[in-house]
Task: structure prediction
Amino acid sequence: MARKLFGTDGIRGTANQAPMTPEIALRLGQAAGLWFVRGNHRHQVIIGKDTRLSGYMIEPALVAGFTSAGMDVLLVGPLPTPAIAMLARSMRADLGVMISASHNPFEDNGIKLFGPDGYKLSDETESEIEALMASDLSSRLASSAHLGRARRLDDAAGRYIEVAKASFPRGLTLDGVRVVVDCAHGAAYRVAPTVLQELGAEVIAVGVSPDGTNINRDCGSTHPRHLSGEVLAHGADLGMALDGDADRVIMCDERGQLIDGDQVLALIGESWGAAGRLQGGGIVATVMSNLGLERFLEGRGIELHRARVGDRYVMEMMRERGINIGGEQSGHMILSDFATTGDGLVAALQVLATVVQEGGHPSDVCRRFTPLPQKLKNVRFEGASPLLDAGVQEAVRQAERLLGTSGRLLLRPSGTEPVIRVMAEAEDLALVDQVVNGLCARIESARVQQAAE
Result:
């Protein structure tokens, strides 16, 4: 069955519009609850959220759905996505749910599901749940005597704080390190500053005043220039910007220069490789990661494996190949020694640990390679994908000939919004600009022609 509700990262959309409505959330709770009710034990689901206003609408609808399926619900309030995955596994829950649209603006929201092992559900399982949602569930719901209960888990934040701190090398401290942490007014606004402070850092916390509508607004990992300005203004050693649900991180050095996910992968990969901690002989990135990262790792005997875009696909490839480091250029970092999904805070702690251990300026320690010129542009569309247009396909072939074997071209539809992403990289920046701008213009022309027809 083709999925209509689930995308690359759960169900996502504009709040109070399909598919992000209370009715669909209720139905999802019922279907997912029934799918994971197996055996006669008291079944349990953990539900967390970020700070969006619409969380107050989605959360009770999910609670109603799960309790009607006979599941007990533990509510933990605003916590990072990796905390929900961790709690689902550590508490032997049957399911974990995160209400968040990650880096999207507050108008959007989403629902992500984690299995009892703490991993995101497979495409196949999501398809089965979606099929259940479309069926008649009335005869399968719990009887009056077997309805679930809901309660709050008051110490959830403290549990995650301790797990995050435990990922930092024992014997090291952040004493004397001044860190700016931008929490994007999102799910980590309490826990991230606390972790850094308890490890000894001098913390300048920004983006820690959520009001329901300011999540990711001009801050966080999608607006990292705000972080750079704060680092320079406070004379900090390092900065880290999380997104709304804190599963990704973008960093910057003491000069305010950005450190993207590729540089973080290079740093952790080389550091863990030297320490004998790297498993599987490589790391997993995505098709979006810079060719400079691949060349850097190759020079150190570390193989780069490329997965589809989306941290769930990175994780799947990591598990298939027995690899313990993976991530995306956008800042999703998965370190399976510590977490089953992306964790921006834990990844940043590994960078901080390397900076402390090597004792150099972050601007030197965190720049492992020089990236090739790379450009990414989005073209919005409606209806059929412009990539099916014959003229666009011929333009792609011409672009590939121009780039030759020394560059890369990637066109892909987004999994979360109706846009085509066009990316090219090569040694020659002018050539990259020519290829990307030319393709975007051709795709836009095809889109206009489709609309006219």
About this structure: The first strand starts at residue 6 and ends at 7. The mean pLDDT is 94.
